[in-house]
Design brief:
alpha/beta; Rossmann fold; about 45% helix; binds nicotinamide-adenine-dinucleotide
Length: about 280
């Protein structure tokens, strides 16, 4: 998948972020920095990936993937700046950013009754958190030497940032006022920032997952039941996606195979938004 460099992944302790961490390690990345508010789960993901690498490399002397973990809240500007800069200095550079940290919430009664605190929290994590990480990483990427893609000498890349939109970045879903607004905004942020730096070899794209089986969607049995009914009737493929299937889209957008792609929103949704 052409991701030999160094990746920084937020929301890496669970679901899609965790699948992305494993995917970069499995595809030969030189290092991964994993960020999440949940320190314990983050440490468990690190141990799990190290186990997989050791298993794969038994008897061989292949290159190891350096794994750094950072307990960090993406809504804390100072923490984000510190951690992104620390990861860049430990690795020597940052090639891929995966902005997967996110939270979802339904507002009982819809937009008319959404609480200000709920609105603010979702905006803080999904939109402002994404912006903080993008800004800190872009400042570093713009200063670093570009690397040539390992695929047929394609044009230089200074860095690649993948933000997390959603099907709710392009359509509305009931009772999801704040979440839907933030995911539309993440696509806007992606488009404007991508244009700022397209000529500099810094690519910025969004991935837009459809219904995907992660703790976000499965931990509440009521939410899961409603979702399963919706998936059966509204998703052309009539199933949920797996975190690995989303991670494959992220690998594509991060690495050299998408060298001519910037400012895009890649739908990975079983056909949900194409009808
Ligand atoms: N699962 C889906 O169906 C689906 C669909 C579309 C988009 N998405 C998006 O994909 C991304 C990953 O979602 P997921 O399903 O893997 O969810 P998840 O709940 O399994 O994982 C999200 C991770 O983000 C972390 N996180 C939350 N707030 C944070 C903060 N302030 N700072 C740092 N880390 C924080 C959580 O601790 C958790 O580990 C999110 O942006 C989500 O909106 C998910």
């Amino acid at each position: 998948m052409d991701v030999p460099g160094f990746a920084l992944i937020t929301g890496a302790a669970s679901g899609i972020g965790r699948a992305c961490a494993k995917a970069f390690a499995n595809e030969g990345s030189a290092g991964i920095a994993l960020l999440d508010v949940n320190h314990e789960a983050l440490a468990a993901v690190k141990t799990e990936i190290e186990g997989e690498i050791n298993e794969r490399q038994k008897g061989s002397r292949g290159k190891l993937c350096q794994i750094e973990i950072y307990p960090v809240d993406v809504t804390d500007e100072d923490q984000v700046n510190k951690v992104v800069s620390d990861a860049a200095s430990k690795f020597g550079r940052l090639d891929y950013i995966v902005n997967a940290a996110g939270i979802a919430m339904k507002h009982e009664g819809g937009a008319a009754f959404a609480k200000t605190a709920d609105w603010q929290r979702i905006v803080d994590v999904n939109l402002t958190g994404t912006f903080f990480v993008l800004r800190a990483a872009a400042q570093i990427m713009l200063k670093q030497e570009p690397i040539l893609s390992s695929i047929d000498g394609r044009p230089i890349q200074r860095g690649s940032i993948v933000n997390f939109g959603s099907i709710q970045g392009v359509v509305g879903i009931t009772l999801s006022t704040a979440y839907t607004a933030t995911k539309h905004a993440v696509i806007g942020l992606t488009r404007t920032a991508s244009e700022d730096y397209a000529k500099d070899g810094l690519r910025i794209n969004a991935i837009c997952p459809g219904y995907t089986e992660t703790p976000m969607t499965t931990k509440n049995p009521q939410v899961l039941k409603a979702m399963e009914e919706r998936v059966a009737t509204a998703v052309p493929m009539q199933r949920m996606g797996s975190p690995k299937e989303i991670a494959d889209g992220v690998l594509y957008l991060a690495g050299g195979r998408s060298s001519f792609v910037t400012g895009s929103a890649l739908m990975v949704d079983g056909g949900y938004t194409s009808r």
